[in-house]
Amino acid sequence: MTPLTQLTYAAEQKSAEVTDWAARIGWLVGLALFVALVYWLMREGWKWRGTLQGDLPELLQAPDEPGPVRLTLSGRYHGSTTAGQWLDRIVAHGLGTRSRVELTLTDAGLDVVRPGAADFFVPLKALREARLDKGIAGKVLTEGGLLVVTWEHGDRLLDSGFRSDHAAEHNEWVETLNQMINKDSNKTEGAR
């Protein structure tokens, strides 16, 4: 090999690039700050929504003597929304918190027991409708996979979504709830 060939050969060889750790760490810190900012903005939005819904009255608690149990259901509570607006989540008083649920239907109304979240009671006179649906704020299922109960709280109509551990129970709940609602509304109209 001539000295000129050796020089050309040496100029073509490169060593492996050295990792620029300062740049990598900078990108990781920037990404972490961005994720923290997005989380903080989501949290502030949730709190702001709760403030806007501050006119919603406190949730009712179950009476001491609710009457005989008609149906029970064990499953998940997926949240409450403004009736007819399945994406307008209600977060005031913990109604936006997903949780396990134990539903009990009695002659007095619907008792919603949620471990780790606020329990509430919907009196029979506040119930408006029960139906099967496919979604509610942040949860979409197959057609008819969600039991949605429409009820009045204060001056608002709300939809609350429930999913039983045994989806076959949904139809019985819809039929029983709607029969009770119709029977109660007939009594109210007859009393006028």
TrEMBL record:
<dbReference type="InterPro" id="IPR057446">
    <property type="entry name" value="PH_bac"/>
</dbReference>
<feature type="domain" description="PH">
    <location>
        <begin position="56"/>
        <end position="177"/>
    </location>
</feature>
<feature type="transmembrane region" description="Helical">
    <location>
        <begin position="21"/>
        <end position="42"/>
    </location>
</feature>
<dbReference type="Pfam" id="PF25362">
    <property type="entry name" value="bPH_11"/>
</dbReference>
<keyword id="KW-1133">Transmembrane helix</keyword>
<keyword id="KW-0472">Membrane</keyword>
<keyword id="KW-0812">Transmembrane</keyword>
<protein>
    <recommendedName>
        <fullName>PH domain-containing protein</fullName>
    </recommendedName>
</protein>
